[in-house]
Amino acid sequence: MDIFEKEATKLMTGRVEFLLSAPELKFLPEPTVPEIAFAGRSNVGKSSLLNALVGRRAIARTSVTPGRTQELNFFEIGNPTELRFVDMPGYGFAKAPVKTVERWKHLVFDYLRGRSVLKRTMVLIDSRRGIGKHDREVMDMLDKAAMSYNIVLTKSDKVKATELSQVTDAVAAEAAKHAAAHPDLYVTSAEKGEGIAMLRAAILDAART
């Protein structure tokens, strides 16, 4: 772990507090510090990754029920607060009425398009699945909004090394075709801790840029 990774780890595993849930844009907190958003399809492992990043077991709820997160959830990082994590509703295959899913989608997209302090979006992709239809829709939207994002592969411990390599290469090749996609791709396992320190450093770097 290099010096910057240690600094990022110290920050993100220090003071972490839930701030608020915003079911609509009018409930967003004041844009006073940089924000890093986390997007991903339902059950991609977003909550588990957030918990791993901050070194907690349950700061973000995990669930086997797709669509559990229905609001933008804000967490303050650092003392004093240096940045915020934003846990966004999962997209795709949510077990909810169509109108509810559409409401979540508009909330997420409107936030991504218009939030002035949003520094980077982390688009989470399941290592077992690769990029799917709903992921491409979000990536296309981020391209149009000129909102920089990183691809983060989750659950890397759930696939064999050869398969992981193939998925990583395929995802990197597709990401290279997207204007707003950052060239650095992160391969992580929340369960094993793989790639977490490196991702923390990337998040802190993005927040300070």
UniProtKB/TrEMBL annotation:
It holds the Pfam family MMR_HSR1. Residues 32-209 form the EngB-type G domain. Coiled coil: none annotated. It comes from the Bacteria. The keyword Cell division applies. Transmembrane segments: none annotated. Its cofactor is Mg(2+). Keywords: Cell cycle, Cell division, GTP-binding, Magnesium, Metal-binding, Nucleotide-binding, Septation. Belongs to the TRAFAC class TrmE-Era-EngA-EngB-Septin-like GTPase superfamily. EngB GTPase family. Necessary for normal cell division and for the maintenance of normal septation. This is Probable GTP-binding protein EngB. It comes from Sphingomicrobium clamense. The lineage of its organism: Bacteria, Pseudomonadati, Pseudomonadota, Alphaproteobacteria, Sphingomonadales.
